[in-house]
Amino acid sequence: MTEPLIQVSIDGHVAIITIVRPEKLNALDRSMLKELSAACDLVEVNSEVRVAILTGAGKAFSAGGDIKAWAAMTPNEFGHAWVRFGHRVFERLATLRVPLIAALNGHALGGGLELAAVADIRIAETQIKIGLPETGLGMIPGWSGTQRLTLRFGAQVVRRMALGGEIFSAGDALALGLVDHVVETGTALEAAQTYAERIARRGPSATEVAKLMIASANGEDNGTAVEALGSILIAKTADLKEGVSAFTEKREPAFKGEW
Description:
By secondary structure, this protein is of the alpha/beta class. It folds into two domains: 6-200, 2-enoyl-CoA Hydratase, Chain A, domain 1 (Alpha-Beta Complex), CATH 3.90.226; 204-249. The chain has helices at residues 30-45, 67-70, 75-94, 111-116, 148-153, 155-162, 170-176, 188-200, 204-217, 222-235, 238-249; strands at residues 6-11, 14-19, 51-56, 100-104, 108-109, 121-125, 129-131, 167-169, 181-183.
């Protein structure tokens, strides 16, 4: 059997999701998107995990979408099997119940930057470049480059990348708020692990709820955030326990309105 191209390792409270296709600069194809979604499942169901790190193997973070994976698709396939499917996977990463740190060990261009943008914190090595070069190829950013990036970083910086084709250095990206920390070459993962331990020491329930509230305040999927917060609250009530017991015992529930 071949090794998975998306690998997950868990050490204590920290999960590390690694894209392992270094010979292709960790470019993503559809099977890898499916593996990324499965990695989200592993993180979500493990109650010990309090923070996750996303990084790439070798000298690249991710070159984004593999052109060979979509170039021969029909417009219908491209729109649905590639763009919409990628959107769903990236949304899963962005809405993980735990904070996500992107350890940018290499360039984050196009889909690679869109992937980095799903993280709550981005730690970049000093040599990397960041940008959205898609319009130079006659296409547009397709995995929320014009949407999530605009919400998180502001419209003007996205205009400069998507319309003007500007490519930013790590220092420029730090000044523009595209990344949160810049570290020496070869140290992004170590720095991300240190930051992850910092997060893991904080209250996990409070951290999860804070992440949801920040996303809601930023206009990111308000409906999901509200329902998740409401469900977490209701799950702790005596009324829910009574309702489940009554259903199991085939009787009328005796709700008391107790929290």
